[in-house]
Amino acid sequence: MTTLLIDGSSRPHSNSAAFGERLLVGIPHQTLHLADVHLNFEHDTRETDQPQGDASDDYAQLFAQFQAADTIVLSTPVYWYNMSGQLKVFIDRWFDSFSHGASFASKRLCLLIVGADDPVHKAQPIIEQSVKLSCD
Domain coordinates of the chain in residue numbers? Predict the structure, then answer.
């Protein structure tokens, strides 16, 4: 069993990364800091002759790590009642991969949300709208 921690913070040495590492103490895992990679925004080209994918960034390498993991921990700070922009771009690209036949039905997905004040309330949009509905 392999575990992948995807840190969505834009800050090096972030609370999101620190809490993710604490959560996984004693569990062999790899950590991927999205701030250290290049991800392009999703470009919807379905109604054109252009291919949907964009090979000019690091997504293919990231997705290979994602596919190899059995457990994925998504870690993000709360940014204006939502996840970080870095994690949102990754999730947009990730879910587009499933429209092309990829599957994650056998994977365990964990969500670690870090917030300064009232994170239980302020994190609800991330849980309900961004992750739960997408995974359903």
Answer: 3-134
| Cα–Cα distance measured from residue 11 to residue 79, given in angstroms and rounded to the nearest whole number | 12
CB 70 within 8 A of CB 2: yes
Superfamily of domain 3-134: Flavodoxin domain (3.40.50.360)
Residues β-bridged to residue 3:
29, 71
Q: Tens of pLDDT along the chain (136 residues)?
A: 699 999 999 988 899 999 999 999 999 999 999 999 998 887 666 677 665 556 788 988 998 998 899 999 999 998 888 889 999 999 888 877 776 666 777 889 899 989 868 877 888 878 777 677 666 6
Kindly report the pTM of this predicted structure: 0.85
Between CA 72 and CA 35 the distance in angstroms is 17
